[in-house]
Specification:
Layout (H helix, E strand, L loop, with lengths): L2 H6 L2 E5 L5 E2 L15 E6 L33 H7 L8 E6 L5 H13 L5 E5 L4 H10 L7 E5 L3 H11 L3 E5 L16 H18 L2 E6 L12 H5 L2 E7 L5 E9 L7 E7 L2 E4 L18 E8 L2 E13 L7 E4 L3 H14 L7 E7 L11 H13 L7 E3 L2 E2 L5 E2 L4 H10 L4 E5 L13 E5 L2 H9 L8
Parallel strand pairs: 4-8, 4-9, 5-6, 5-7, 7-8, 15-16, 17-20, 20-21
Antiparallel strand pairs: 1-2, 1-3, 9-10, 10-11, 11-12, 13-14, 14-16, 18-19
Helix pairs in contact: 8-9, 9-11
Protein name: DNA repair protein RadA
GO molecular function: ATP binding; ATP-dependent DNA damage sensor activity; damaged DNA binding; hydrolase activity; zinc ion binding
Family: Belongs to the RecA family. RadA subfamily.
Length: 463
């Protein structure tokens, strides 16, 4: 046998995540750096697939009946908002989130609501016993006659349960706990997750059955298992929340049937999980009078404007290295705001410990919160409260300029709806858009201009 033939028949190894191949097995992919994703792919042989007989000829797109894929509301408005209108028959939804964030509680509530519409629902749990799920269902009042429950970790038996029940909605909690005896590997491994997902997706499409798969996440917050899983499903949702806060956010990362810029807000309590149509009140303090070091801003979560409060506290220190503590805000952006104030607004902050936080545990990552952060720090330094009824938003650059942000008009309208009367916004060529009657807006081009407006001599409020 020639050396050329030997190389052609040599075993190859391929990464299940990105497809990178190598002639030797390695523990870590040389392309995407994923651990444990390189598997033997067999001999490198070029094959072609012959054409097969067509059982169902292709249809003209005008003759396709789209009514079979119409949205079906779940009864949970915030979930329907994120999904684009509700559940689509035959769609496969992947819901991922940190442990304890409330994924199982939300899906059990969804299962009970759908079952209450006289539609059969099958809930397959691989992490808990049926009795444990029943206890949670009784606690959140999620018991329905058409809701079927089974605790199973074998894929073959789970598919048999689907055949016997023939549900309109299938919930699998979670896809990493099911395993197939037809393939090698332990439950949760790359090979097993790929096989389980492919089998469940095939069952969903062939039966026109809506399927929701719960997915685990890794340490860095990404969905565990092969990246192929996210490509195969129709919708990928991320359930987020801080364990010290009741607020939960549901985001659609991928959605073949609706937008990916919608966010659903939920309140997790002992009685279950409820949608929050107006969650802004959770992120503001209840002080009757303005307090120094606080500023209200409007952030966009998807297309939804939310009001949040930024609080700052400065305390003079004798330490050579002042302390910089943040909560709910990006620490690097807060440090940048302090540097801008010190350099561009001549504000001495190098001898002060700083503590900057948000109210209610909300995380503000949008650059539009820069101006509110800077004003809160300036208010704390001067010990002068900002005017009552004031909001501020805008991105701040290192040169001290205040840059325009998207959705200025939408933010102003939300603030006016909640009783605010003034706004400090970035200067924009197109203007802030339609301003509600009686609402006063002041455009600023730099941080120094905003400080002169709010803290200058004789300035009480923007006009």
């Amino acid at each position: 046998m020639s050396s050329k033939t030997a190389r052609a028949k040599a075993p190859a190894y391929r990464c299940a995540e990105c497809g990178w191949s190598t002639v030797k097995w390695v523990g870590r992919c040389g392309e995407c750096q994923a651990w444990g994703s390189v598997e033997e792919a067999g001999a490198v042989v070029s094959r072609t697939t012959p054409a097969a007989a067509v059982a169902k000829p292709a249809q003209r797109i005008a003759d396709v009946d789209a009514s079979t894929a119409a949205f079906q509301a779940t009864g949970i408005g915030e979930l329907d908002r994120v999904l684009g209108g509700g559940l689509v028959p035959g769609a496969v939804i992947l819901l991922a989130g940190e442990p304890g964030v409330g994924k199982s509680t939300l899906l059990l509530d969804v299962a009970a609501r759908v079952a209450g519409l006289a539609r059969d629902v099958l809930y397959i749990t691989g992490e808990e016993s049926a009795a444990q799920v029943k206890l949670r269902a009784e606690r959140i009042s999620a018991v329905a006659d058409s809701l079927y429950l089974t605790a199973e970790s074998d894929l073959g038996i789970a598919l048999g349960q689907i055949e016997k029940t023939d549900p309109s909605l299938l919930i699998v909690d979670s896809v990493q706990t099911l395993s197939s005896s037809a393939v090698e590997g332990s439950a949760g491994g790359v090979t097993q997750v790929r096989e389980v997902a492919a089998s469940l997706i095939n069952a969903a499409k062939s039966r026109n059955m809506t399927t929701i798969l719960v997915g685990h996440v890794t340490k860095d917050g990404s969905i565990a298992g092969p990246r192929l899983l996210e490509h195969l499903v129709d919708v990928v949702c991320q359930f987020e929340g801080d364990r010290h806060s009741r607020l939960r956010l549901l985001r659609a990362i991928k959605n073949r049937y609706g937008p990916t810029d919608e966010v659903g807000c939920f309140d997790l309590t002992e009685e279950g999980i409820e949608g929050l149509a107006d969650p802004s009140g959770l992120f503001m303090s209840t002080a009757a009078e303005p307090v120094s070091g606080t500023c209200i801003t409007v952030t966009l979560e998807g297309r939804r404007p939310l009001l949040a409060e930024v609080q700052a506290l400065l305390a003079e220190t004798s330490n050579a290295q002042p302390r910089r503590a943040t909560s709910g805000l990006d620490s690097s952006r807060v440090a940048m705001m302090m540097a801008v104030l010190q350099r561009r607004a001549a504000m001495s902050l190098h001898k002060d410990d700083s503590y900057v936080a948000t109210v209610g545990g909300v995380k503000l990552t949008e650059p539009a919160t820069d101006l509110a952060t800077a004003l809160a720090i300036a208010s704390a330094k001067s010990n002068k409260p900002l005017p009552k009824g004031l909001i501020a938003f805008g991105e701040v650059g290192l040169a001290g300029e205040v840059r325009p942000v998207p959705g200025i008009g939408r933010r102003i309208q939300e603030a006016e709806r909640l009783g605010f009367t003034h706004a400090v916004v970035p200067s924009s060529h197109g203007g802030p858009g339609q301003i509600p009657k009686g609402f006063r807006v002041k455009e600023v081009g730099t941080v120094a201009e905003a400080l002169d407006l709010l803290f200058g001599a004789g300035t009480a409020s923007p006009s």
